[in-house]
Every structure is written in structure tokens, then in C-alpha cells.
Amino acid sequence: MEQTVALLYATVADTYKRLKGLVKGVEIEELNYTGPTGDMNSIGQLLKHLAVVDLHWVYRFRGQPIPLEIKKRFGPLLDSYGKLPTISKNTTFLELMRNYEAVQKLFCFECRNLSNKDINKVVVYEKDKKATIRWGIWHIADHSRYHQAHIALLRRYYKQHLEK
Among residues 163, 162, 147, 164, which one has the least CA distance to residue 22? Predict the structure, then answer.
């Protein structure tokens, strides 16, 4: 990997490693827990969301649409109400993490093929917004950290819920 690409990639890799530590030991009930009032996104929803968003960025960097079979496997970014899609109660933590790991491997492969010049290319996201690949890579790490705060809060709420 070229130096600047490697630096940006490292922020994503480090953030993903931090996420794996944060969710270590999550069981099925906690995976589906939606907070004390039942109106928060669950850890499962957030993990799936992070994987889907990162997957979209990988294909933006490639300048390609996501293949249909991959779209079917990962599902949509949002449901018909503009919210994070729910996950099946049968979805396991291991399944979500395997899918996210697969996306991280695609992301790593893509970064290995990017040059320092490539990261200044502009890509379109969210219909009409534009960003450089450099910004997109940074955003992947920042977006993960943002939702890690939600996951940490859910874990704290869940622990309090069990103590009642």
C-alpha cells in the first residue's frame, strides 16, 4: 500500500479492531436489545449497518454498482421508512461479524490497489453528494467510531437491565 493510503487504511483497521473488542461477548438477547424504552437501534442493526455502509464505499471507490447477489446478502442501507432495517431474531452475532469481516477484507484489497493519486478522485454518494476517496476512507473510520458510542451505551443499558 502506498504511504498515504496505508495511513488512512490504518485508521479504518484500528477502528474495526476496537469495534471487535467492544462487542466481544455479545449474546443473542443483547444483540437484539433496543434500549430501556425499546426505541434505539440494536447492536445487531448497527453492526449490519456499518458493514452495509462500508460495502457501499468499497464499490464507490471501484466506480462500480454493487452486484445483485451481494446486495441480496447484505440488504438495503435503510428500510422503506428511512430507518435502519431490523435484523431477523435468528441472525447471530457470528453471522454479522463474518459478513463485516468479509467487507473489511474487500476494503483492504481495494486499498492495496489505490495509489496516493487515486485517493484524490471524486466519487458520488447519497445520490448527489461528492467526496474524494480520501474523505470516504476517513469517513468509514469516523462513522464506525460514531456508532461505537451507541453500542457502548446499549451495552451499559443492557447491563443495567440485567441488574434489575
Answer: 147
**Beta pairing partners, 131:** 123
* Number of H-type helices and E-type strands within the chain: 6, 2
d(CA 116, CA 3): 7
Q: Domain 3-163 sits in which CATH superfamily?
A: dinb family like domain (1.20.120.450)
Q: What is the mean pLDDT of residues 126-152?
A: 97
Quote the pTM value.
0.96
Q: If DSSP codes are grouped into helix, strand and coil, which group holds residue 163?
A: helix
pLDDT tens figures, 26-60:
999 999 999 999 999 999 999 999 999 999 999 99
Longest dimension (CA), the chain: 56
Q: Where are the domains of the chain?
A: 3-163
- From residue 128, give the alpha-carbon distance in Å to each of 20, 37, 59, 79: 33, 35, 16, 20
